[in-house]
Amino acid sequence: MTSEAKRKARAELRGLWAATLTPFRDDLSLDEAGWRANLRHWYGALGIRGLFVNGKQGEYYAMTVEERKRTAEIAIEEARAFGGKVMVACSDQNVEVVAELARHAEAAGADYVVVHTPVLYFGAHTDETLLAYYRYVAAQVKIGLVLWNQPPDCGYLLRPELCVRLAEEIPNVVAIKYSVPRETYAALTRMAGDRLIVSSSSEEDWLENIVELGWQVYLCSTPPYLLQTPSDRRMHEYTELAFRGEVARARAVRDSLAPVRRALKETRPPGKAAAHQKYWQTLLGQAGGRVRRPLLELTEAEKAATRAAFEACGLAGAPARAAA
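Request: output the structure for the sequence above.
Response:
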């Protein structure tokens, strides 16, 4: 029998969901005003369906538990005005912190929680250990739980067979952000059927995943608000074309974004993804802000190169303002 959580997710987890960056002020405190402005821009001007808050892109590991709760509360509050949805990342090395954050997210009104596979030592990442881990976390809430596996970050693959078992045995496990090679997530998609919604963060593969794998949701990274402006929503456009079966038109629109993708990729210094994306946000008129230690900021030369590529990439309506 399909659980209510799975039915709800099948209806709601559609279209573009973005993983958020968290803006910090020059003194590295949380920029609540900038956070609110970004949320309103993303939900309103860009029409993003849902947000994935406090993930690795959002530097959760550099935030206190109270800061993570506060950013989630603000996101949920701002989403209501736009009919948007919020998925709160509750990942942490301490499972009791995960449980606390999950309970808080549900009480605050979040639609989903997402939990990364834990780092486990001495070969402890057995199927039974991971089943027990996710059973415990899922039991803390009634809302949908989204799995998340990025093998380089935890040291192991959550195998497709185990993903299906988790979805079958835990009623509120509804989806997975599966940051793995395409052949692996394609295998899980075919294996899972309607039991588990599968997605990945590769924007470059998103269109083909709609067409070839029948995917319904982009979960989740920064392209929905780094590749788009209020007057240039090509990622949204090609997504909707693909959903309607207009594949040739969708591919033409998708391919037209190549200069923007190239500008982002070619100017990103090694090890500075967060700082680079935040500077790109600033150029777009969003609140980018600082990164927290131990991450490094862009140099002035790196900013200049990024700014030049940004101004030449062809995003319509981009303000192209230089950062101070």
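The first strand starts at residue 15 and ends at 19.
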